[in-house]
Write a structure and sequence with these properties.
Layout lengths: L1 H26 L4 H11 L10 H31 L10 H34 L2 H11 L8 H39 L1 E4 L5 E4 L1
Antiparallel strand pairs: 1-2
Helix pairs in contact: 1-3, 1-6, 2-3, 3-4, 4-6
């Protein structure tokens, strides 16, 4: 049980870090080349010259707002586990089961939405003519840098949340098995018969 309790404490801290990372990613969702493309529509007013800039701007801004809200809710849900002492309890109660399962389910739903948002944004991003965008951007601003790093990070973030959710569920199963084992030991009465053999009476 001691090994499991150490693991559950580390796991809860890792889960909190994952939630915090989702917030950081949400804040940077429209960064990099997406920001430069969005600038062509929002700041430089090159929407006519760069086809698809408006669609990318509107979609990425909408997704960005949703992701920020989802990530804040994720942090709050993970914090609920610490309120319920899921990181330190030897025996779990209904509130611990609820908070952990809620966290795992939310993480999976969040990850699926993130995959959808990233994929949709990337499709709009890829539809823009890079050479035209770079030319129009360079007329007003310098250092146009093409990068898809934000999308790669988005996919990695979603994968991390799904893995974290799976580990949360597996740890809960492990915890339940150990709790059942301890209860059986507490209920059992050991005695030694005349032959010296030990038996357990339930």
């Amino acid at each position: 049980m001691k090994t499991q309790m150490r693991f559950q404490k580390i796991l809860m801290l890792v889960t909190l870090v994952v939630a915090a990372l989702s917030f950081v990613y949400a804040l940077s969702f429209c960064g990099g080349t997406v920001y430069q493309y969005n600038s062509l529509y929002d700041q430089i007013n090159k929407v006519e010259e760069v086809e698809g800039a408006e669609a990318l701007f509107l979609a990425s801004q909408k997704y960005n707002d949703i992701l920020i809200g989802l990530s804040v809710a994720f942090i709050v849900i993970v914090a609920l586990n610490f309120v319920m002492a899921s990181q330190s309890r030897r025996n779990y109660y209904v509130t611990n089961y609820v908070s952990i399962i809620l966290t795992a389910v939310y993480a999976v739903v969040f990850a699926i939405l993130l995959l959808v948002f990233v994929s949709n944004t990337f499709s709009l991003f890829a539809a823009i003519d890079k050479e035209v965008a770079e030319f129009e951007y360079s007329l007003v601003m310098d250092d146009f840098k093409y990068s898809i790093a934000n999308f790669i990070l988005g996919y990695l973030m979603a994968a991390l949340m799904i893995v974290n959710a799976v580990v949360l569920v597996l740890n809960l199963v492990w915890k339940i098995k150990l709790m059942k084992g301890e209860k059986q030991l507490l209920k059992g009465v050991m005695y030694r018969d005349a032959s010296g053999r030990e038996e357990e009476v339930v």
